[in-house]
């Protein structure tokens, strides 16, 4: 295990070197991207799987007390405001204020993920262009087959950076979209909670 | 949030970032690993072995064929250009136009050669001076102790006479030029030879002016 890991690290270093100056920005982007994805993944937890209407009834009747996820927390907050006697448009506005932090949490790092997913292939492309420039430079200066440069160096640089850019972007894009979908659904559910709580209390 | 404190979420996110880093780079390195292409080869080899078992009642344990060293193809030299074959598709309006004709003395090149002016490098035999006239050292230069040289290009005709003279280089400039040109014009040469015939030629001649 130890030598295998060591070997892998060596390969990693060789890879980073052959890719040129674009590799390290991409390296940083990978860390940031997956940090953002991880944060979003853990922040956007619904809690119970039951529908919003059922959950509201349960929390209202006192069968459940401890909220487990984001939707649960939102329901508890909304019910607290309603039970304190705020109704109608005032109640709705207060609930909206209370929900602000939930909306914020749902949107946190979304822009970051989207930006990195868009930018990393472009940075890879930049590396490719740099590699091609090196290649054509070597054509001009007749150092075609020289060590550590020339056609071989330029082309490998060109290919590695594009590859890394795409490998960074594609999983990020897929996972990011899945999490985005979840956050969109939960945004709708927050609206639903607002409507149900207010309308039920008005109806009583 | 109530279910997880912000700190915990950030810690988990940090874990994810480490995971993502490993994931991305292991994927990329494995992609570029040459060993990555090996497993399918092994599979193919075993599949072939199975088929042989079905076909033959007695399965013989065959020693695995060792990977043969790659055959090195004998290097071929570039084919010599065959002008006649290149021109074969064209109707040139000439009868039996062949590349061999180009090289013979009587053909195209021979005719051209009659009036052609050649240079030192292209002739078979460079012109040799057969009669030189002595050159007078300029008095002024002798007084001042100036030495130098003049490099000239001479056009020597078929009879070996100097037709034209051009000064290519001189050091010091213009000091010896007139004397040298005047002298060289009276020289006679053994004409240059190309394929056994005298030809007109541009030849270089350097004259040094030294004080002994």
Written account of the structure:
Chain B: It comes from Sulfurimonas diazotrophicus. Chain B: Keywords: Cell inner membrane, Cell membrane, Membrane, Protein transport, Transmembrane, Transmembrane helix, Transport. Chain B: Residues 79-88 have a biased composition (Polar residues). Chain A is mostly helical. Helix content of chain A is 83%, strand content 0%. Chain A has seven helices and no strands. The radius of gyration of chain A is 26 Å and the shape is elongated. The N and C termini of chain A lie far apart (67 Å). The mean pLDDT of chain A is 83. Helices cover 36% and strands 21% of the residues of chain B. In chain B, a hairpin with a 2-residue loop joins strand 6 (192-194) and strand 7 (197-209). At the A-B interface, helix 1, helix 2, helix 4 and helix 7 of A face helix 1 of B.
SSE series of chain A: HHHHHHH
Q: Would you identify the regions of chain B where 5 or more consecutive residues have pLDDT less than 50?
A: 36-56
Question: Oligomer, anyone?
Answer: heterodimer
Helix content of chain B: 25-40%
Number of contiguous helices of chain A: 7
Class per helix and strand makeup of chain A: mainly alpha
* Shape descriptor of chain B: elongated
What is the number of beta strands of chain A?
0
Order of helices and strands of chain B: HHHHHEEHEEHEEE
State the low-pLDDT regions of chain A, or none: none
InterPro entries (chain A): ExbB/TolQ_transport, MotA_ExbB_proton_chnl
Main location (chain A): membrane
Membrane topology (chain A): Multi-pass membrane protein
Organism (chain A): Sulfurimonas diazotrophicus
